[in-house]
């Protein structure tokens, strides 16, 4: 069953997995970010997913955003071990889902496929324009995307995409595998982080049945209304929106700066404007998702 045909008018996805892991005392400052805990402390990833489910999320996004064959190879892990860790990311979310399944609600596991810039671990996911062609990006993403498509997840989260070219590469791969996915860009000032019009970026998913929803994530909450409108107009597909807290990321300091602007009341507007899946990204924790879930229930 398509997760958008679950019978719920609006679905709530989780918040920032790394945010919750950091709140639990983990230092995620290395290049693997939360993916490091797939090897070092998978039980902590289960606990973080469980916290978001208990807060009211019905979609868990796995800790595979920054996991890649190249990234793990730099830590001395071979392909077989990397495949095991990618699958462990999905298994962690499945375990958490099983632990909260007593209420009878349907919950979903979305295997995170982060951008090439996440592997670089230098803030490139907020710039795009890596100097790679669509074909090169497709070739780089293919092994991990295919592995996650075979991992038992319900769908793929092609997320935090900064660049139309990378969006096209990921959509082509999803279509080739025949596996369902959503596509979400990170945007700024009404354009992709690479500067392309949102209408053009979303259009790469139009007419591709494997892409179930399109939208934005890890952007300022203020960017969401225009993105919802652009995504609907360009594709006619359901829209997903899970912005960050509104604070700014400083890649040099590797820290968040400035005030936050994420509120559950803002999300009420996203739903009114047509978003079908709403949640949070970096710096949005279980408490904010619980408030969001309450707003969604009131709106239904």
TrEMBL record:
InterPro entries: BHMT-like, HCY_dom, HCY_dom_sf, Hcy_S-methyltransferase. The keyword Methyltransferase applies. GO terms for molecular function: S-adenosylmethionine-homocysteine S-methyltransferase activity; zinc ion binding. Its cofactor is Zn(2+). Keywords: Metal-binding, Methyltransferase, Transferase, Zinc. Zn(2+) binds at residues 218, 281-282. Residues 1-296 form the Hcy-binding domain. Binds 1 zinc ion per subunit. It holds the Pfam family S-methyl_trans. The keyword Acetylation does not apply. One of its GO terms (biological process) is S-methylmethionine cycle. PROSITE patterns: HCY (PS50970). It comes from the Bacteria. PANTHER family: HOMOCYSTEINE S-METHYLTRANSFERASE-LIKE ISOFORM 1, ZGC:172121. NCBIfam families: PRK09485.1 (NF007020). This is Homocysteine S-methyltransferase.
